[in-house]
Predict the 3D structure of the following.
Amino acid sequence: MKKFNVFVNKKTINIQDRGFNFGDGVFETILVKENKPLHFTKHIKRMMEGCRSLKISTPPVNLMREYALKSISKTQNCILKIIITRGLSEQGYSINLNSKPNIYFNKINNVPSLVKITGLKLKVSKVTLVRNSNLSGIKHMNRIEQSLASHEILHEKKEYDDLLLLDDQKNIIETISSNIFFIKEDKQQLSFHSPKLSKSGIDGIQRSVIIDFLKKKKNKVLIQNIKLSQLPQFQFAFICNSIKGIRFIKSINTVKFKEPEPVLALLERLI
C-alpha cells in the first residue's frame, strides 16, 4: 500500500489539500544546472527536518530523488520546486489520520538571470517577522510575512531592490527571499557575520554552503544577533539564495557599504 501520493509536473491541486487551505506543509526550490539539481541532498535534508517539525510523515530519500529526476527529465537548466503537504481533509483544522501526504514535483523553466550582482539598495521593511522557535529555520508553506513585504516593495521598486526584515526584538533576520551576511575588514582579514535564525527566518541552503566554504578556508564566521545600530561596523554586505546566488549590497537605509573586490576574490567560486 502506498504511503504517499506523488504528482509530477501536475498543473492542478485538490481543493481539500491542507497545503492549499492552511499552508500545512513544506517546500523546496532547487536550481538545476546541466540536468543536475544543485545541493539536492542538503535541500532534502532540510525538507525532512521540516516534515518532522510539522509531524508529517517523511518519504524515503530514494523516492525523492527518483521523482525529482522524472520531473526535470532531460531539461538542462530549470528550477525544481518540491512541495510536501499533510494531505487532504474535508473541513476545519482537524487532521484525517488516514490521509496520505501529497508530494508535488514541479519543473519551472524560467530561470532568472543574474543581471545585478553588485550595488543593491535595501531599506528596512515595515513588516515584522514573528518569533517562533518551533517553525524557525524550516521552509514551511506559511509565507504571509514575505508576501506582505513583496507587496510593500512594489511601491519601492524604483529606488530599492529589496527589503530587510527584522523580528519583533529588532534583530536583523533576512531579506524577502534571501539570507544576509555582513563582513568586517580588519588589517586585510575578513570576518563574516550572519544573523541567528533560532527564532525567525529560513536557514537557507546557499547560506549553509557559504558558511561551510568559509570555515573550510579558515575564515572567521560568527552567527549572532545583529541590530541596525551595528551596521556602520561592517564594510561589506551581501545576500544569497539558491536561485539568485550571491548579490552584494550597496546600502541599507542611509548606511553605505564598500565595493566588494576583496570578498569577490574569496567567493568567486561560489558566484
